[in-house]
Amino acid sequence: MKSKVVIIPVPYEKTTSYGKGTKNGPKAILCAFKQVERYDIELNRPTDNIAIKILPAVKDIKKINYDFSGGNLPIYFGGEHTITAAIIAAIKTSRRDFSILHLDAHSDLRDTYGGTKYSHACVMRRIWEMGVAFVSVGVRSESYEESRFIKREGIKIHYAHQIHKDKDWIKKITKRLSKNIYISFDVDVFDPAVVRATGTPEPGGLTWYQVVDLFSAIKKANKNLIGMDIVELSPVKADLASSFACAALLHKILAIFCLK
Prior knowledge:
By secondary structure, the chain is an alpha/beta fold. The protein has one domain (5-258): Arginase, Chain A (3-Layer(aba) Sandwich). Helices cover 31% and strands 18% of the residues. The protein has eight helices and ten strands. The chain has helices at residues 25-33, 83-92, 123-129, 144-153, 160-163, 169-176, 208-220, 240-258; strands at 5-10, 39-40, 45-46, 52-54, 73-78, 99-103, 134-139, 157-159, 180-186, 224-231. The strands form two sheets. The chain has an eight-stranded parallel sheet with strand order 4-1-5-10-9-6-7-8. Helix 1 (25-33) packs across helix 8 (240-258) and helix 7 runs parallel beside helix 8 (240-258).
């Protein structure tokens, strides 16, 4: 059977600034995924008929490529969020008709951080410079520099404190996305009650069902998912729940976007 989903582990960790361990994220998610039931209760559908191919790990982000041919859905496992800029650059070599749904506790719009322009804290700034449209969701921490930049450039951020008070937040986000979308999912967008094992956790994040409802609405709006990354899991042995939540997220994405 031809692969529908292609998983690309990218255990890249160079600029983590607080908690370490993102290089172990891909292995932890894949290990936890073995424990996930291949059946979606909400959809009442089995998911074991979704073909998945796991490629060898890419340790050098300069060697990241993108292949959507044949209907394959590439899903990248980080690793730190820096990998997303390399992925988007690779996508742009073959297509430009897409926007990004960026889920994150942080704006990631600093120009430099820690002496480099290629920090996890700068990834969306580099993508903005590429001219790719994006919508950021779940943000609850940013610098004064970022705040000024956001206002000056008219960048739309759906902050977590606004989302928690707005019953129409999903509708507003869905309307801003183009037909073809790439999802960049920093796991710290979740409240620490869902995922604690991440390098820069922030209180007040999105719940599991807020994320599921958003993805379900995107699918219902007939958006076409062209790729995705799940980044910034920093697994620890004492917290299996965080790794499992990321694996369950993968399963939910497959159920929503890949089942016919």
